[in-house]
Amino acid sequence: MQTCRIGLVSISDRAANGVYQDQGIPALETWLRRALVSPFTLETRLVPDEQPLIEQTLSELVDEMGCHLVLTTGGTGPARRDVTPDATRAIADREMPGFGEQMRQISLHFVPTAILSRQMGAIRKQALILNLPGQPRAIKETLEGVKDGQGAVLVPGIFASIPYCIQLLEGPYVDTDPAIVASFRPKSARRPAEE
Ligand SMILES: Nc1ncnc2c1ncn2[C@@H]1O[C@H](COP(=O)(O)OP(=O)(O)OP(=O)(O)O)[C@@H](O)[C@H]1O
Ligand SMILES: Nc1nc2c(c(=O)[nH]1)N[C@H]1C(S)=C(S)[C@@H](COP(=O)(O)O)O[C@H]1N2
Q1: Three-class DSSP category at 69
Q2: Ligand 1: residues whose CB is within 6 Å?
Q3: Is this complex's ipTM strictly greater than 0.90?
Q4: Which domains does the chain have, with CATH numbers?
């Protein structure tokens, strides 16, 4: 089975300058190790909120490291130094507006300020790039979605759509643990064993 290469980028002035310890990469990594059942490798980067540096990091992960998926965390808000969506848009080939819409919809179930995030999704070459908010707990919230007390899905997390998107970009077949996040694919796109 082809391995999915995933880039993780934590964008935080204070974490990058050692004011506090970065919790973004550990939160992303912990969630992915819980949710993915197919093989993947990780490339991690911690950068301050500097647009040229973010653009350079995203381009390197996609063009040189060959990532199929890049998840960023932080710098999506309205503050002057929040420039992650601007950097993503600057290096994108195409935008994927549904991811930002879905994340804000999910986040409204957790915080009333969800609409302050300008987070977006985009495609560059073979890679899907997604901006998650900087608050470490927002990572699980947006990837996994909203569930009731019994674990039934109320609003699907964005990861439900990621494996099929990577498949449409001619990347590897990504499988998730349905107890964490059920990935959706049309029947014609499923592997024979799954039908
Ligand atoms: N990488 C991180 N590690 C730990 N906590 C973080 C991280 N990024 C953000 N946070 C927490 O989430 C909050 C909101 O994140 P946001 O991206 O808006 O950060 P910020 O206030 O711009 O500051 P900074 O860029 O210095 O992290 C932060 O104030 C901080 O408490
Ligand atoms: N799930 C979730 N989404 C969230 C938040 C959060 O705590 N959880 N914080 C909101 C707030 S207060 C802001 S300002 C924006 C931008 O956050 P960022 O600059 O850390 O990316 O994300 C919003 N979306």
Answers
A1: strand
A2: 10, 12-15, 20, 22-24, 49, 74-75, 77, 79, 134-136
A3: yes
A4: 4-194 (3.40.980.10)
